[in-house]
Write a structure and sequence with these properties.
Low-confidence stretches: 20-68, 344-353
Shape: globular
Strand order of the largest sheet: 1-3-2-6-7-5-8-4
Number of helices: 14
Number of strands: 8
Strand content: 15-25%
Largest sheet: 8 strands, antiparallel, barrel
Helix content: 25-40%
Mean pLDDT: 76
Structural class: alpha+beta
């Protein structure tokens, strides 16, 4: 990631002052017999012979009878791509749909503006029609949880009733328009939750509504469905800050070098204390292999459990519905056949320029 800002002040000195602020925690054929009965009733044709005569050619009676009693052909199986398109469309129309918008600011003045907006724009985003959950983020200079801030990159996450609603607000919202106008570049990805566990400020923002069909979730989470996104959010206990940050940066660097990761960024609500990682993987199989295999992630999970680092945590997986914009000068999802949303409607897909 570009424009990483670091400070020469030792990490321990910056963290020690935070260890007594525990208060920061507050925080898916024709039915001949039926047709015959109806015709016999309506027309008074109560004699079988009259029925044959009314139908027409009596000589065809035997053939018609054989066809009526022939075994029915099994229903034609729906193709995997068609099933996936249907699943994504169902999820796109079912709450919640999540938008994650990232903004990169170039000049010092633009970065200062973005930093100020973390407080000034919060109310405007919270008042967006249809938005039921909104979070604003700064970012870290590494690939995941990181103690060093990056003053160039900021993010906004929101939950909406549907994909169409999310995209409409992205287009029409003055707050989003102002951020895009100030930014050097921006990228928004639209997501449908496939599953989550844990809480975020005591809420469960990624629980899907009861209207979402389980079949749609299963189809969108299948290995053949393509890229899948993951989000981890944690509140670190102030008393555990120093211990946590002594170990986490090296783990994040190793995760960032994982060839399977298509995109990864570290975000933060409060520096050092409330951290978020967002990543995109080629498919569910590769993400599961990383999460369950031995390596840096397994080490981090063991350390969290053994040391009680987190006072609150949340893990969520998402299907990718659509995206818009560029990041690092490219489309992060270039070549991915997204088949719902505006890009699909325009016949361009995620791989378009």
């Amino acid at each position: 990631m570009r424009d990483d800002d670091q400070t020469a002040e030792p990490l321990e000195a910056r963290i020690e002052g935070l260890q007594d602020i525990e208060g920061l925690q507050d925080i898916e054929g024709l039915q001949d017999e039926a047709l015959r009965d109806e015709a016999l009733h309506d027309e008074g044709l109560r004699d079988e012979a009259l029925w044959d005569e009314a139908v027409g050619d009596r000589a065809l009676g035997d053939d018609v009878g054989r066809q009526a009693h022939a075994p029915e052909s099994p229903p034609r199986a729906e193709s995997a791509p068609a099933r996936l398109r249907g699943a994504r469309q169902t999820l796109a129309e079912t709450a919640p749909v999540i938008s994650l918008s990232l903004f990169r600011f170039g000049s010092a003045a633009a970065r200062l503006w973005a930093f100020a907006q973390m407080g000034l724009s919060r109310r405007a985003f919270l008042r967006e029609p249809g938005a039921v959950f909104v979070k604003l983020f700064g970012s870290g200079s590494g690939e995941g949880f990181t103690p060093w801030p990056n003053t160039a990159v900021y993010g906004v996450l929101a939950a909406w009733p549907s994909l169409a609603s999310a995209q409409k607000r992205q287009d029409e919202s003055r707050a989003f328009q102002r951020w895009r106008a100030q930014a050097e570049e921006s990228w928004t990805v639209y997501l449908a939750p496939l599953g989550s566990r844990g809480a975020w400020d005591g809420r469960r923002p990624f629980d899907r509504s009861a209207d979402a069909a389980d079949e749609a979730v299963a189809a969108a989470a299948a290995p053949e469905a393509g890229p899948i996104a993951a989000l981890t959010r944690a509140s670190i206990r102030p008393s555990k800050l120093l211990s946590f940050w002594r170990h986490e940066p090296e783990i994040s660097r190793r995760v960032g070098r994982d060839a399977a990761v298509r995109f990864k960024i570290g975000l933060g609500e409060i520096p050092w204390v409330r951290q978020v990682t967002f990543s995109i993987w080629p498919d569910a199989r590769s993400m599961t292999a990383f999460a369950r295999g031995e390596g840096p992630h397994a080490e981090a999970i063991r350390a969290v459990r053994e040391n009680g680092y987190f006072s609150e945590e949340l893990y969520a997986r998402f299907a990718i519905l659509d995206d818009h914009g560029r990041w690092g000068g490219v489309r992060p999802l270039a070549g991915v056949p997204l088949d719902v949303g505006r890009e699909a409607a325009d016949g361009e897909g995620a791989g378009s320029a």
